[in-house]
Design brief:
alpha+beta, two-stranded antiparallel ribbon, 11 strands, 222 residues
Length: 222
């Protein structure tokens, strides 16, 4: 099979970016399941294996592009569960019930240093792909950690019906079912699990990082 020309690959990259933008727009208007589409698109862009060749690698851009890190890695000294790609939002509903959920901060996260590869860097600095893709950004109560790669592949493969390693599948299922953080909400209605899990907002935040990174380096997309 003939290889695609660079022009064709760049057209494919633009198409994937449009997919991300549309899914992000729909997600932000309340269609949270668009996170699944974003995960599949992110998989196309970044995942390499013996059977899969990422679009970024086919363009040889993995050697030149760097990626916005809005989160940093989980602090290993912190023994409680956490997600650095999302934050907790609380609000009172009309009936007096308390809604507590994970949300993506996008570009409005507070400035300051984050921990990346053992060093402090300014939030939203761009870093090398390997660190960005593989640093642990979620930790559950069992000590299981998820990287951006792990979140993207677990969501895209799990929801798409493809093979997922059994151990990863169990850990992801607990995360997706809001069981892995060990947090609960107590209000007038009693005690219950949190109203959302960190997976969808984490994927939305990763999408923001990717679109911002590509926008900042569009002069290299030639």
């Amino acid at each position: 099979m003939p290889r695609r020309s660079r022009e064709q690959l760049l057209e494919a990259l633009d198409e994937q970016m449009q997919f991300l933008k549309r899914s992000a727009r729909d997600y932000d208007t309340g269609h949270l399941v668009e996170a699944k589409r974003m995960a599949v698109t992110l998989r196309v862009l970044f995942h390499n294996s013996s059977m899969s060749h990422s679009l970024i690698n086919q363009l040889d851009l993995h050697r030149t592009l760097t990626w916005v890190d809005s989160a940093g890695t989980h602090d290993r000294r912190n023994l409680i569960s956490s997600s650095t790609l999302s934050h907790i939002q609380m609000r009172t509903l009309g009936d007096g019930a308390l809604q507590v959920e994970h949300v993506a901060g996008l570009g409005d996260r507070p400035p300051g240093d984050i921990l990346v590869d053992g060093k402090k860097v300014p939030r939203n600095a761009r870093i090398a792909f390997e660190v960005w893709w593989d640093e642990k950004v979620v930790r559950d109560t069992d000590g299981s950690g998820f990287s951006r790669r792990g979140l993207v592949l677990a969501l895209s493969n799990h929801e798409g019906g493809a093979h997922v390693d059994p151990k990863v599948k169990v850990a992801y299922a607990r995360l997706a079912n809001s069981e892995a953080f060990g947090w609960s909400v107590s209000d007038l209605s009693g005690e219950r699990p949190m109203d959302s899990n960190p997976v969808f907002p984490a994927i939305r935040q990763i999408t923001w990082e990717v679109l911002t990174s590509l926008h900042q380096q569009e002069h290299l997309l030639i």
